[in-house]
Description:
This protein is an alpha+beta fold. It is 24% helix and 23% strand. It has two helices and three strands, in the order αββαβ.
Amino acid sequence: MRNDLYQRFAQQQDRWIALTPNEEKLIASSEDLAVVVAAAKQKGIARPVYLHIPRWDSNFAPACKS
């Protein structure tokens, strides 16, 4: 991804985003994935990239059984 998207990600914490297939432009963002998918379809984007941007003040570690 391009470095200039870092600033956009900083504003999208705890939200779903859709990017163009080349990952250069932000298409839509929302707390609800369905809203982001609908916005991408409405804009006619064929194969958007969907990402969830986590909050940066929390950690995530999956639980593992030993």
